[in-house]
Amino acid sequence: MNKDTRLSDVLHVLLHLGHAKEPITSEVLAKSMGTNPAVFRRTMAGLRAAGHVSAEKGHGGGWLLARPLNEISLLDVYVALGRPTLFAFGNRERDPACQVQARVNAVLADSMAQAEALFVQRFAEVSLAELAPKALSKAAKPC
């Protein structure tokens, strides 16, 4: 099964942007995410709409943080990405009249809701500044 790495990829990009002195192009950042610039821009659209990043077109343009890393939480990024699914398993729905299926589905749904609440609580407590290396070399490019 493929894993959704958007959250991890975007956090990586944001931390590099946190050390950037000048805008970084979509091409450079897309390469660091292992994708193409168009997919990168679509992925970043929610973060731009939420005011976490800004982007300028044209020569000398690119992406910059719109807010300091200490003002952006993991939860902010998670929400801006559209709250990606945390769990890959689903409920059985073969027989709506089956009492066993109904009970299993109810317990799984409740357990997943509780687990997601813990994620959300923890994500709200962690700022991106806490994830950032103290310094990157001046020659460091997004990797």
Can you put this structure into words, describing what you see?
A hairpin with a 5-residue loop joins strand 1 and strand 2. It contains 5 helices and 2 strands. The chain has a domain at 6-86: Arc Repressor Mutant, subunit A (Orthogonal Bundle). With 143 residues, the protein is mainly α. A two-stranded antiparallel ribbon has the order 1-2. The chain starts with 5 loop residues before the first helix and ends in an 18-residue tail after the last helix. The radius of gyration is 19 Å and the shape is elongated. The mean pLDDT is 90. Helix 4 (74-80) packs across helix 5. Helices cover 48% and strands 6% of the residues. The longest helix has 27 residues, at 99-125.
List its salient traits.
single chain; two-stranded antiparallel sheet; HTH-type transcriptional regulator YwnA; mainly alpha; Tscrpt_reg_Rrf2; WH_DNA-bd_sf; DNA-binding transcription factor activity; 48% helix
**What's the average pLDDT?**
90
Q: CATH homologous superfamily of one domain, by name?
A: Winged helix-like DNA-binding domain superfamily/Winged helix DNA-binding domain
> How are the strands of the biggest sheet laid out side by side?
1-2
Reading off the top of the CATH hierarchy, the class of one domain is best stated as: Mainly Alpha
| C-alpha termini separation | 25 Å
Which spans have pLDDT < 50 for at least 5 consecutive residues? Answer: none
Task: Give the oligomeric state of the chains in this entry, treating copies of one chain as homo and distinct chains as hetero.
Answer: single chain
Question: Secondary-structure element sequence?
Answer: HHHEEHH
The name of the CATH topology of one domain is Arc Repressor Mutant, subunit A
* Count, helices: 5
Beta-strand content estimate? 5-15%
GO molecular function, one term: DNA-binding transcription factor activity
InterPro entries: Tscrpt_reg_Rrf2, WH-like_DNA-bd_sf, WH_DNA-bd_sf
Protein name: HTH-type transcriptional regulator YwnA
Pfam families: Rrf2
